[in-house]
Design brief:
The longest helix is centred in the N-terminal third of the chain and has 24 residues, at about 5-30. The chain has one domain. Helix content is about 85%, strand content about 0%. It has helices spanning about 5-30, 30-35, 40-60.
Length: about 60
């Protein structure tokens, strides 16, 4: 077996507690997220199109 039973139990408990803490932390700061990150999708879209453009340019130039 790759991991012992104790290691698997520790990993499961750690994952549950970590995910729970992250959810609690996000819920606590949700008002700040709505204020500071309301237009973050525009930035993400710009990054996506920039990467897509450079990928297209790279494949087009190396034909």
């Amino acid at each position: 077996m790759l991991f012992s039973t104790g290691q698997l139990v520790f990993a499961a408990i750690f994952a549950i507690v970590f995910i729970g803490f992250m959810i609690w932390s996000y819920r606590k700061d949700i008002k700040l997220h709505k204020f500071y990150y309301k237009n973050v999708w525009i930035v993400a879209l710009g990054i996506f199109f920039t990467i897509a453009f450079f990928a297209f340019l790279t494949f087009w130039l190396h034909k």
